[in-house]
């Protein structure tokens, strides 16, 4: 029984063993077949699915991580390499472009700032009355200054000599008293100012006028020009009253009236020319540093503008009044000539008309430009100063130089004397046409005397 059970147990054991052996074989075969089949199928399907899913997920993850890592490394590497290369290239290109742009912008900005700063410093009260610093770039000829000085002093001295020598003839009538005052104003002003200008030229523009000397020269120049213009205006008024109002003119006090007019002219001209000494406006040294005048260039203060307008308005009124009065006198002589008979000689009237035309033309052309220039500066129409102002001053002084010649040497008596001298020198008849015309009739003689007394 026991053997039977034992055999039965062995049979079961062998069966189980065979089962497990077969199971292992089957498992191995199935695993191999399944692995191969699954791997092939799974690889294809999984690869396709996994590639798409993984690529998307991996790309996003890798991109984020890689971008951060690469960016940091790349930035550091590129920055180091690029900085060196870029700096060299950029420096050269930028320097050229930046230099041009900055220079243009900087030049404009710096110029404005420097100009403003310099203008504020140079327009200080200390600088206003001082001569500009001498500079070797000033090249002006001394000949014009010398000619104005010589002819101005000598011409007016000759005029005074002629007046004194011919005192018995003109008997110091009002007109000749005014002529004497004109010669004193012109000759004295030139004599009192031009030696300093000559010294400035002779020093090769190294001598600078001190402030006190510049104030003095400013007064002298302004007084000479203004008093000369006023005396000319008074002479025109004297002729006008003598022609149009002879009864009012011919009074016993006419000589004293002329002296009072002359004194009033000098006082008024002195007041107008000295206002800068009392704080209204200032004097200024003008190019090329050889003359001083009222400061109508730097009008930074209201007082300078007011002073410029006062002087310019006074000069404009004098010029306008002189021109109007002389034109009225000329029109009178022209109408008087055409109203006379044809038989009467016109030689007595022609010199008077020409004489007055010369006065109006010379005085206006020489003196008016300076007044106009002062008006332009006061109205800020023009700026700066240079050779233009120098030219206008010389023109105004030229009027003072020529005044004695046109008022004395071109008069009828002097012309007759010069004609007689020329005739004697050439051996001709000493009887001049002017003398013949004045001796033709008593009426002509009286008319001539009237013309001479008027002129």
UniProtKB/TrEMBL annotation:
GO terms for cellular component: plasma membrane. The keyword Membrane applies. Residues 155-407 form the G-protein coupled receptors family 1 profile domain. Residues 444-455 have a biased composition (Basic and acidic residues). It is a multi-pass membrane protein. Its main location: membrane. Keywords: Cell membrane, G-protein coupled receptor, Glycoprotein, Membrane, Receptor, Transducer, Transmembrane, Transmembrane helix. The chain crosses the membrane at residues 142-163, 175-196, 216-237, 258-278, 309-334, 350-370, 390-410. Residues 431-443 have a biased composition (Polar residues). One of its GO terms (biological process) is adenylate cyclase-activating G protein-coupled receptor signaling pathway. Residues 431-455 are annotated as: Disordered. Gene3D superfamilies: Rhodopsin 7-helix transmembrane proteins (1.20.1070.10). SUPFAM superfamilies: Family A G protein-coupled receptor-like. It is found in: Cell membrane. It holds the Pfam family 7tm_1. Signal peptide: none annotated. One of its GO terms (molecular function) is G protein-coupled receptor activity. It comes from the Eukaryota. The keyword Membrane applies. Belongs to the G-protein coupled receptor 1 family. This is Thromboxane A2 receptor-like. The gene is LOC111118501.
